[in-house]
Amino acid sequence: MTTSINLLGGSGGGNYRDPEISPEGQTTADPLSEEILAKNREFVDTYADELYDAEAKKILDTVREHAPGPLVITMSMENTVLAELSERYLPGTDLLFLDTEYHFPETLEVADAVEKRYPNNRLIRATATLSRSEQDRVYGRDLYRSNPTACCRMRKVEPLQRNLSPYAGMIDGLRRADGPTRAHAPAVSINKTGRLKVSPMITWTLEDTDEFIDSEGLILHPLTRQGYPSIGCATCTMPVAEGEDPRAGRWAGSAKTECGLHTE
């Protein structure tokens, strides 16, 4: 009799790997040098208060002039504001898109459009260690239902961390108006690996964002005008009723409110 062994760590018959144990491979960013760590801390100590309520231009101008190393812009493709701001204030900055393999088709179309519209910004498509089908085989089908935190960790947090290794910091699209868990977020801070975390849209509202997209003729994610003000994976995102928290449709039906990207 021939025995089939799953070298990825799971096996047939429902005997799946513990989702708290990630696949083999790198799960965190490479450590920064002591020099960059010290300069990042100095940057935040110097500018955190000044930039707390600053406009995006001032935040990005300050980063361009004083950040101690290259930064990368993380984009969910829910909107393309960060790509436009980068072209204006941080030309040539890499763009990082986490391709979870669970995205809406429209999200992938936006990513393709960004790559064409902003050719001077390299678009990096980060993927999980396991493909979607491999994850089903190792951890059980539809892990996003049985353990959404583990699914987000393996398909978002860990790919982000691996791809942050060449950079002194990251720029994200965090907005305080997006919900109570973000209401007091700083414009600049240090993440768990000592990297800069910069949020130039921190004071923007959803209305500010839509107005900028319309006035500047930016690439539009069509679902944002169809009841999806916050867009994640298609399997875990529902439309939101008018007046609801913009992130109310994320992980609908569960107590989960964050994927972990903004807490690392």
Jot down its keywords.
single chain, 264 residues, alpha/beta, Rossmann fold, 6-stranded mixed sheet, 8 helices, 6 strands, disordered N terminus
Topology:
Layout: H1 34-51, H2 56-66, E1 71-75, H3 81-89, E2 94-98, H4 105-117, E3 123-126, H5 132-139, H6 143-146, H7 148-163, E4 169-171, E5 188-190, E6 196-198, H8 206-215
Polypeptide structure, described:
- The protein has 264 residues and is α/β, with parallel strands linked by helices.
- It has a single domain (34-222), classed as HUPs (Rossmann fold, 3-Layer(aba) Sandwich), CATH 3.40.50.
- It is built from eight helices and six strands, in the order ααβαβαβαααβββα.
- Strands 3-2-1-4-6-5 form a six-stranded mixed β-sheet.
- A hairpin with a 5-residue loop joins β5 and β6 (196-198).
- The longest helix has 18 residues, at 34-51.
- The relative contact order is 0.17.
- Mean pLDDT is 89; it is low at 1-13.
